[in-house]
């Protein structure tokens, strides 16, 4: 289907869809579809214990990626993985261990009462991690992974008390798929606020936590991590664009909602999130020589 902007002028009162593929002069939409490769997909497992071991390795890699991007701020920030063996529990980073040092064996397993039931030598649990992520995992059975950190552009944008404007192609990933949580009551140590955040998130993949930071979720670890990085960059892009436009007495140019919705179908899906995140994991494995798998 052609995007709304690729509609030719009306003929006899009816708009006619263009046969040209957007951004590819001379290439028809049907040719483009034929040439589109079949994308890979996440590995599947029949043995849930093997799946757990694999996913814990991916979670450890996710922390290394966050460390590489500078998403650590003291001891703040957490990424959680729903356990495939016991989905009522999740794995998370031990409180006080640097993202850049985390290994698979360091991760701790937490039940939905907030008790650490398995894991590495350091079994300290960040209470805010449990309150937020425990509520999200409980409310969203489809969520395998949730990520939150106090990244610089994310928390700066969250001080504005507004949602993203859809001003770039990348921002289309979050078109009608992110929310603003309009409250800040200090560090999330109360069960009610965790549940309020989960309720505000609803069925979306991202939340801007006012005066706090970003929260993203995904059906895969790769997707949750990629959405976080992409949302952080979208916040940075909008802060820069708003400043540049404002300095000239103008406003930024917004993408038409129909075009944003069309683009979302390509770059905003769970499969797109996994595929876009995969290169980050390939790179960190190369850079760390897979040391995080210990």
Structural overview:
This protein is an alpha+beta fold and 294 residues long. Helix content is 39%, strand content 15%. The strands form 2 sheets. The protein has an 8-stranded mixed β-sheet, with helices on both faces. Strands 1-2 form a two-stranded antiparallel ribbon. A hairpin with a 2-residue loop joins strand 1 and strand 2. Helix 3 crosses helix 5, helix 4 crosses helix 6 and helix 6 packs across helix 8. The longest helix is centred in the last third of the chain and has 27 residues. It is globular, with a radius of gyration of 21 Å. About 5% of the residues have low confidence.
Key words describing this protein structure:
eight-stranded mixed β-sheet; two-stranded antiparallel ribbon; 294 residues; 39% helix; alpha+beta; 8 helices; globular
Précis, in short:
The protein is α+β, with helices and mostly antiparallel strands and 294 residues long.
Residue runs with pLDDT of under 50 for 5 or more positions: 6-12, 14-22
- By DSSP, the count of extended strands is 10
| Dominant shape | globular
Structural class: alpha+beta
Instruction: Report the span from N to C terminus.
Output: 47 Å
- Biggest β-sheet, characterized? 8 strands, mixed
Question: From N to C, what is the helix and strand string?
Answer: EEHHEEEEHEHEHEEHHH
Strand-residue proportion: 5-15%
Alpha plus pi helix count = 8
Strand order of the largest sheet: 6-5-4-3-7-10-9-8
Percentage of residues in helical conformation: 25-40%
Mean pLDDT: 89
For the CA atoms, what is the radius of gyration?
A: 21 Å
């Amino acid at each position: 289907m052609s995007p709304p902007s690729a509609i030719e002028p009306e003929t006899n009162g009816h708009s006619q869809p263009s046969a040209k593929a957007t951004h590819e002069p001379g290439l028809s939409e049907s040719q483009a579809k034929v040439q589109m490769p079949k994308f890979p997909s996440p590995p599947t497992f029949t043995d849930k214990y093997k799946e757990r071991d694999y996913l814990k390795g991916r979670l450890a890699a996710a922390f290394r990626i966050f460390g590489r991007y500078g998403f650590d701020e003291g001891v703040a920030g957490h990424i959680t993985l729903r356990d495939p063996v016991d989905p009522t529990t999740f794995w998370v980073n031990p409180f006080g261990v640097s993202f850049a040092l985390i290994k698979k064996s360091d991760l701790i397993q937490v039940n939905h009462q907030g008790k650490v039931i398995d894991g590495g030598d350091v079994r300290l649990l960040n209470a805010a991690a449990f309150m937020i992520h425990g509520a999200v995992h409980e409310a969203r059975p489809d969520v395998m992974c949730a990520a939150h950190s106090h990244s610089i552009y994310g928390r700066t944008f969250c001080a504005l008390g507004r949602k993203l404007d859809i001003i770039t192609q990348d921002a289309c990933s979050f078109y009608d798929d992110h929310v603003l949580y309009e409250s800040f009551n200090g560090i999330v140590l109360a069960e009610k606020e965790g549940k309020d955040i989960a309720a505000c998130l609803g069925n979306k993949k991202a939340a801007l936590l006012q005066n706090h930071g970003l929260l993203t979720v995904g059906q895969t670890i790769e997707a949750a991590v990629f959405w976080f990085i992409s949302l952080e960059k979208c916040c940075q892009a909008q802060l820069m664009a708003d400043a540049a436009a404002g300095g000239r007495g103008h406003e930024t140019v917004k993408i038409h909602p129909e075009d944003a919705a069309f683009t979302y179908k390509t770059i905003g899906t769970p499969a797109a999130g996994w595929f876009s995140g995969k290169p980050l994991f390939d790179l960190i494995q190369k850079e760390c020589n897979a040391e995080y798998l210990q």
